[in-house]
Amino acid sequence: MHHIATIMKRELAGYFATPVAYVFILIFLVLAAAFTFYLGGFYERGQADLAPFFTFHPWLYLFLIPAISMRLWAEERRSGTIELLLTQPVTLWQAVLGKFFAAWAFTAAALALTFPIWITVNYLGSPDNGVILAAYLGSLLMAGAFLAVGSCMSALTRNQVIAFILAAVVCFALLLAGFPLVLDAFRAWAPQALVDAVASLSFLTHFEAIARGVLDLRDLLYFGLTMAFFLIATAIVLDARKSE
Amino acid sequence: MIRTERLTKRYDTLTAVDGVGFEARPGEVLGFLGPNGAGKTTTMRMIAGFIAPSEGSASICGHDVERAPLAARAALGYLPEGAPSYGEMSVRGFLEFVASLRGLAGERRRERLGHVLERLALGPVAAQTIDTLSKGFRRRVGIAQAILHDPPVLILDEPTDGLDPNQKHEVRELIGEMAADKTIVVSTHILEEVDAVCTRAIIIANGRIVADDTPQGLAARSRYHNAVTLRLEHAAQFGAARAALEALPQVGSVEAAERELSVTAVPVTGARIFDAVNALAAREGYALKGIELESGRLDEVFRTITA
Fold first, then answer.
1. Residue A108 pLDDT more than 90?
2. CB–CB contact B88 A91 (8 Å)
3. ipTM of the complex
């Protein structure tokens, strides 16, 4: 635990060593607000909830999360510090988790900074704050799953741009799996079980359930397992390719 | 102490390291020599536990690097090739980070940090971002990181690369000081370094150990071992001296450099000709700027066995 915390602290400090972190948070907040008020029709709907805010999170994350995660391992491999880190008395696991938690904590901070919108909706009406809290939790879990994918893609290459593109593509595929566009194509010929299986792979399906305020264990488990899967994949990829 | 047995690393079609076995004990400074691409760095990476050997094993202070990786790494200080460090951190921040991973705490942590900052003359730049430092400073940050926890075993991959002559001297002195109770392996392709710091040298070529000897022992393999050079004052005596040396018994060959007015007599293998040459010079009355006895040329030995 001690080593995970040490690595996480160093990584987190690294984000704020350059203005990139601040720029990122600013872009995130501006885009979140723009989507909510213009595309989501926050005022026009006349409802005191944050559905228009959370609806766009998957699409926001699609591009912003790979931007956070691309650096995780690609930069360590490019600069050779991976050799320094992994010859310290730490396990590969501690390094993978330490870095992942740093990225997740950073995302959590960005998400927490959207609190003015929560204040706004409480000022305008009386929303169900339980639903909002659940939606925040769902959004954070989904961000973690996106980050785990990004961590794995970043471990694959020394090039941050490639890491970004790979992460965006894989995340896009995981999002689309729950989109009517894909599901309808399956529905035409496949048995319902397969359609459900594809839909159940989707970030979207699980996130929307949580965002409605339904905290189903299966949805939480889904994000937990997705993170575990891609973090294990990160460790396997690193073990095989770290010295290349 | 370091011990490797039949250490081998194979990539798809290439065998980078092929059955390297050696043992290094406390008090030894082992120089790892070889042409670029000979497998020095790969060998060191396997001992440091960064890459897994395809075959064979390595252990540090009795801890197998694959079966007990954390214990082996705890006993090791390692400077990877190119001395990588986190560029966006300050020197002190970086060393604090390594100290935490190394489990240093309290008084000992403060004492060790102070020691390495002072010993590697990093004090004045401690608050500076590593990216802004010169190559020499960055190399020293890498060495500081490696010796921070006072490990019994040190592996330094090209520790003096990029340093100026004064800094090289400093680092060699540091290695010499630490050598008393540590096992140190230094890779280099600077041959003077072997003479300056190493008690033993291993030459590796195409992934195999081709020589394992003391620096003196290696130099003795040179054809210039016990060669004698006369440096003459007058050009008039040059031709005569050359002919006289060629006529001496036990002289295998004579090399003459007319511009420097120097004549080198190379003995047949194993012969000692210094006294004979010295006597000849006195008898013939050569005016000499100097007379030199060579112990051998490492670069020539290096070329002969790695070519």
1. yes
2. no
3. 0.88
